[in-house]
Description:
The protein is mostly helical. Helices cover about 75% and strands about 0% of the residues. It contains nine helices and no strands. The longest helix has about 35 residues, at about 70-110. The radius of gyration is 20 Å and the shape is globular.
Amino acid sequence: MLTQLHNEKMLFALIAQGDENAFRVLYDAYSPRLSLYVFKFCKSTTATEDVLQEVFIKIWAIRAGLNQVDIPEAFILSIARNTTIDWLRKLSKQTSLIEDLKNQLQEYDTDAENKMSVDSLKKLIASALQQLSPQKQKVFQLSKNIGLTHDEIAEEMNLSKSTVKNHLSETLNHIRKQILSGNSSKNALLLLWLSSILR
């Protein structure tokens, strides 16, 4: 429970000023409750931790406006609910796309040793990302994994919105080039997967 000294609106005002200690107090106060809420839907400890991390990353990313929030509890629960819904939608979308891709790959290649697994697809993208600058990698992660908007990323990383857009565009083009450089018959399918799941 939050003490009277550290009530929610006071914490929000402090966090809006960049107070990391206040943010930690908020995290400690809400994370147990939010974990139980998220777990009911995700049914996975790892997924729950990922969603919870996204929730607080989003709160920190928009911290400048927190002092304008009238009901902090409702605000936090709304972010948790929307983030959980986004995660479930992404999971459903990824599962469907990956299954479709695997089925199509089987039509192109009957040799079991050459069939590309989901893990190898992820590794291909991860390998391409490692060739980029840390800043581009972070922009990509915040956009595609955390789900922040261009404006939120720009504020979080102290970049212009146009820089964020350029980084994302250059990153996706780089990943596409890495896939094409494999010169494989599976490239068209990989690009289809990439365009659908990373857009």
